[in-house]
């Protein structure tokens, strides 16, 4: 069996839903995103997947793209980033992008962690671990 693509890790159990959403928008767009962004750029060597996802989170905060940021916050955690590392990436956005964009990123992280903890009651909040 071959190694998983980055998208397998980033999307996790949401992969089918995410790819269906992209297909519904436009099949050619869905193909291009999967083939280029995930199966080419993300699978390149040089940076580990966790670092790529933390960078993606900061870039998506800068663009103000909540649906994509939600995907990549989850992806960063799926790729091994801790909650503290994700928070650190979001904090790095403040001096470059301002408080409103960073606050929006933190709100999406809060929503994700809250939803995750509802489905995983054994994990405790605020411990700096992934959600």
UniProtKB/TrEMBL annotation:
Its Gene Ontology molecular function terms? peroxiredoxin activity
Annotated Pfam families? CMD
Which positions carry the signal peptide feature in this UniProt record?
Answer: none
Which residues are in the Carboxymuconolactone decarboxylase-like domain?
Answer: 27-110
Q: Tell me which domain of life the UniProt entry assigns to the organism this sequence originates from.
A: Bacteria
InterPro entries assigned to the protein according to its UniProt record, in alphabetical order: 4CMD/NDH-1_regulator (IPR052512), AhpD-like (IPR029032), CMD-like (IPR003779)
In its UniProt entry, what is this protein called?
A: Carboxymuconolactone decarboxylase family protein
Source organism per UniProt = Deinococcus arboris
Question: Top-down, what is the taxonomic lineage of the species of origin?
Answer: Bacteria, Thermotogati, Deinococcota, Deinococci, Deinococcales
